[in-house]
Write a structure and sequence with these properties.
This protein has 347 residues and is an alpha+beta fold. It has helices spanning 2-24, 84-94, 98-111, 115-132, 140-153, 160-174, 177-187, 194-207, 212-224, 228-244, 248-260, 267-284, 288-304, 309-326, 332-346; strands at 28-34, 37-49, 53-57, 66-70, 74-78. α5 (140-153) runs antiparallel to α6, α6 (160-174) runs parallel beside α8 (194-207) and α12 runs parallel beside α14.
């Protein structure tokens, strides 16, 4: 009887260990979107994640086989059994803790053995540096370097169009328009699917002066694809092109369309549209009423869109100038506060 109890205890313990081991062993997952409908396949085996297709196997049984899904349909890929260091890096990145994310991704590249971990860590290291660079401009050059490392090592990976996009954005932010245009032209060539093609073409158009006719065609194409963020950004680019071409009333109309329908429009686009409206009021006349309307638009950006750093800095400078013109000594305290904020933001 005593021996039987021991055998029962051992058997139960083994079953508990087996079940808990199965619970801890997480399979890979893939999220696919076709005709607007998403589906998630769990506990699969992942193969090559190429820029054109992602290979996966639903089960490991006798009847299982590898399948290739066009990368354009793949919304997300989740690798199971992630190393703790990589999980930590992901948590920091999603929480916007760029410094800690960068450190953990660097650790993954240096110490982890799984190839997919190194690939993902290299891409997200570059992307985290790009995002960090929005508040710490000194990180932008580091981001460019890491994106270029990714390009040279993993040019056939599904992240390559995202890396080109990130490289173009951060190069543009540093003023390196040549490098930015090369990245956007590569993206806009059509190799990586229609969505990336439209995105690349949009930024290439902006870098070459923002042709009104090209932007209008691009807006129509983006609308057909349901790319609302590009529609909003291209509408902004169109308004800015009209402003640049001194068509101030036409530009004002376009800026007003953007700010009057803010749903789905990013903060940076909205901030730029308010600044554009302010610029239009300044250009349209020298009356004090126009200056007050302009000041109102710039102060909206100062009040509501501090996270859109470049637009925020621009609005601060314009507001300081207009407060001095309109009110002089009456606004000296407010001007002093804004100058202090401008100096702190530029650091």
């Amino acid at each position: 009887m005593h021996r039987l109890r021991i055998l029962v205890v051992i058997t139960v313990t083994m079953l508990v260990l087996l079940v808990s081991g199965q619970a801890l062993a997480q399979g890979d997952s893939i999220v696919i979107k076709i005709a607007g409908k998403e589906s998630k396949l769990e506990n699969i085996s992942l193969g090559k994640e190429g820029w054109d297709s992602v290979r996966y196997k639903v089960s490991s049984g006798p009847g299982s086989r590898w399948q290739d899904e066009p990368t354009e349909n793949v919304v997300d890929v989740i690798h199971g059994n992630q190393p703790q260091r990589f999980s930590n890096a992901e948590k920091y990145r999603k929480n916007g803790n760029w410094k800690s994310a960068v450190q953990e991704y660097q650790g993954c590249i240096k110490h982890e053995r799984k190839e997919w971990v190194k690939i993902y860590a290299q891409y997200y290291l570059a992307e985290s540096l790009r995002m960090w660079g929005k508040t710490e401009p000194s990180k932008r050059e580091e981001a460019i370097k890491e994106f270029e490392v990714f390009k040279s090592k993993y040019s056939d990976h599904r992240f390559i169009p995202s890396a080109l996009y990130g490289l173009g954005l951060v190069a543009q932010a540093t003023g390196n328009t040549g490098k930015a245009k090369n990245a956007f032209d590569d993206l806009g060539g059509g190799k990586y699917g229609q969505s990336w093609e439209v995105r690349g073409q949009y930024y290439s158009i902006l870098l070459t002066g923002g042709s009104v006719s090209k932007l209008e065609k691009l807006i129509s194409k983006a609308r057909r694809l349901g790319m609302n963020d590009i529609v909003a950004a291209a509408r902004l680019g169109l308004a800015q092109a009209l402003l640049k071409n001194t068509k101030y009333r036409d530009a004002m109309k376009k800026f007003k369309e953007i700010v009057s329908d803010p749903e789905g429009v990013g903060k940076e686009v909205l901030a730029a549209a308010h600044n554009g409206l302010g610029d239009c009021y300044v250009k349209l006349g020298s009356r004090e009423d126009d200056k007050k309307k302009a000041l109102f638009e710039y102060l909206k950006v100062v009040t509501l869109y501090a996270s859109a750093r470049d637009e925020y800095i621009y609005a601060l400078g314009k507001a300081i100038d207009l407060l001095g013109e309109i009110g002089g000594d009456a606004y000296k305290d407010r001007i002093a506060d804004l100058r202090k904020e401008l100096a702190n933001t530029k650091r």
